[in-house]
Here is the input.
Amino acid sequence: MEVYLIRHTSVAVPPGTCYGFSDVPLNSTFEQEAENTRKTLEGLHFDHVFTSPLSRATRLATYCGFPEAEHDNRIKEMNMGEWELQRFEQITDPELQEWYDNYLYTPTKGGEAFIDLYRRVGDFLTELRTKPYNKVAVFAHGGVLICAQVFAGIIPIESGFDHLTPYGGVVRIEI
Here is the structure.
């Protein structure tokens, strides 16, 4: 099955802001960025389209012609817990350094570790493989796209963030 992973466009939050589960606004450049994404997808036919329920993903799905995309909570971004919407440099939690040192397996305070996100995305993709689709689109987030590429055996989990898809970017995998 071909899976086209589409990352949302850029967000209107200060640089260095920790966000994941939060529904943050998009930049004023949304239409220009979204148009570039739409052109990348032009001419592709999808058997089914999924989206994270967060507005930064659903808005792009709608702009690209998929207002009826199926929402799935498993493809939301990583839950950053109590650190959501704080600037990383202003987080005083002593557990932050532990998370920096081992984000793969150490959860954020009240949130998830990266491996938890990977398991959610893996569950979504495992179920997706049982469906009778040939080609699907998934509008989601940077962390989700990394996890999907790890799941597909394209990149190693340890260096996932070295392969972060740019805002509005599209990655194709096979599962």
Summary: Residues 38 and 64 are 5 Å apart (CA to CA). The mean pLDDT is 97. Residues 2-174 form a domain with the Rossmann fold fold (CATH 3.40.50.1240).
